[in-house]
């Protein structure tokens, strides 16, 4: 318990620095410019970059206009994503064959992006980088592992995602235009739903479901020097509410019957404690689990729950009506 408490203090300290970097910036004008250029063509990227950024005074506002425009004007292409996934699995043990296929397929994917504004994660990341280049903003494409309900949950098995790092005021920041733009239902339907939470995200939160191929892009010294840990599975709503789960540290947790388990998370927004709940599902029925010792100290919120019955449960942390994180609890 003592070590866990020290970990809480350490995590709270190192992650508090990035949150307020741009709190003085009002992004209303940048978002308005992105809206004014809704539906603009991708056939002339220099013109698009110019129209999005010319009237904005700072690079972070220019980047915001670019990011917002891409997220709200480009649609996720499920067919492309599924095709890439099938090819990755097929050529899992033959990287050269996959690279050859992917090189040819990129030409097709790029044409579809320009013509129909439909793409997959690589296309989103490419478009962000190109528009940034034209606006004189340093930006990189980051390839890595996206943790979802169907991939890379307990171990990093499938290199399946791309996102961006952008340099602003001599400091690198992380963002994911793909997951900002919407979400997928049943691997078949893309729902447009802009989620601002993936814009310049706190690295500790970003690392909950993004793990780069090159660890330097974790952008946090503690994360870089720590081995990958199958932490709780977090969802887009965690980014919307800016929730960083801290305890339990792992997704899979084993406890003894009638013992209390500590839960804690850091809220980068002013989450109200009366909107916090812990639930599990029995079929389609949602059951609320009793929360005890709930307390809030600054941005850190802690509570406990006593598991009184043996078995294995998927337990979900909710903020208001949104599930933000999932744990699998094994009660002995």
Rg (C-alpha, Å): 21 Å
- Helical content stands at 25-40%
Low-confidence stretches are: 1-17
Q: Give the tally of β-strands.
A: 18
CATH class of the largest domain: Alpha Beta
Going by CATH, the architecture of the largest domain would be Roll
- How many domain units? 2
Number of helices: 11
CATH-assigned fold name of the largest domain: C8orf32 fold
Strand composition percent:
25-35%
> How far do the termini sit from each other?
20 Å
Question: What integer is the average pLDDT?
Answer: 88
Structural class: alpha+beta
How do the SSEs run, as a string of H and E? Answer: HHHHEHHEHEEEHEEHEHEHEEEEEEEEE
Shape: globular
Question: How would you sum up this structure, described in words?
Answer:
The protein is an alpha+beta fold. The protein has two domains: 2-16 and 243-331, Immunoglobulins (Immunoglobulin-like); 28-201, C8orf32 fold (Roll), CATH 3.10.620. Helix content is 34%, strand content 30%. The protein has helices at residues 2-14, 28-36, 45-53, 59-73, 78-90, 95-116, 121-134, 177-181, 203-206, 221-224, 236-241, and strands spanning 75-76, 118-119, 139-146, 161-168, 171-175, 182-185, 189-192, 210-212, 233-234, 243-247, 252-255, 259-267, 276-282, 285-289, 292-297, 300-307, 311-319, 322-331. Strands 9, 11, 13, 14, 17 and 18 form a six-stranded mixed sheet that branches. Strand 15 (292-297) and strand 16 (300-307) form a beta hairpin.
């Amino acid at each position: 318990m003592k070590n866990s408490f020290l970990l809480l203090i350490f995590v709270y300290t190192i992650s508090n620095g990035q949150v307020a970097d741009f709190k003085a910036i009002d992004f209303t004008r940048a978002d308005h410019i992105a809206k004014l250029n809704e539906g603009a063509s991708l056939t002339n990227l220099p013109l698009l970059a110019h129209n999005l950024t010319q009237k904005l005074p700072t690079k972070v506002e220019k980047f915001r206009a670019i990011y917002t425009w891409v997220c709200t004007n480009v649609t996720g292409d499920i067919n492309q994503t599924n095709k890439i996934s099938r090819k990755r699995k097929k050529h899992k043990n033959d990287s050269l064959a996959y690279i050859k296929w992917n090189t040819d397929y990129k030409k097709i994917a790029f044409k579809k992006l320009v013509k129909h504004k439909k793409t997959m994660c690589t296309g989103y990341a490419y478009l962000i980088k190109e528009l940034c280049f034209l606006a004189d903003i340093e930006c990189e494409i980051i390839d890595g592992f996206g943790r979802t309900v169907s991939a890379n949950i307990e171990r990093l098995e499938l290199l399946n995602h791309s996102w961006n790092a952008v340099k602003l005021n001599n400091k690198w920041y992380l963002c994911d235009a793909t997951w900002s733009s919407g979400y997928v239902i049943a691997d078949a339907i893309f729902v447009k739903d802009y989620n601002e939470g993936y814009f310049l995200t706190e690295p500790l939160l970003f690392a909950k479901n993004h793990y780069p191929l090159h660890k330097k892009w974790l952008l946090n010294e503690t994360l870089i020097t720590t081995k990958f840990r199958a932490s709780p599975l977090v969802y887009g709503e965690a980014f919307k509410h800016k929730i960083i789960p801290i305890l339990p540290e792992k997704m899979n947790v084993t406890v003894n019957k009638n013992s209390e388990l500590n839960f804690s998370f850091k809220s980068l927004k002013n989450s109200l404690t009366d909107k916090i709940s812990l639930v599990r599902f029995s079929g389609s029925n949602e059951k609320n689990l009793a929360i005890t010792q709930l307390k809030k100290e600054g941005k850190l919120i802690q509570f406990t729950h006593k598991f009184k019955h043996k078995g294995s449960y998927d337990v979900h942390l909710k903020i208001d009506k949104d599930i933000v994180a999932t744990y699998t609890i094994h009660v002995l």
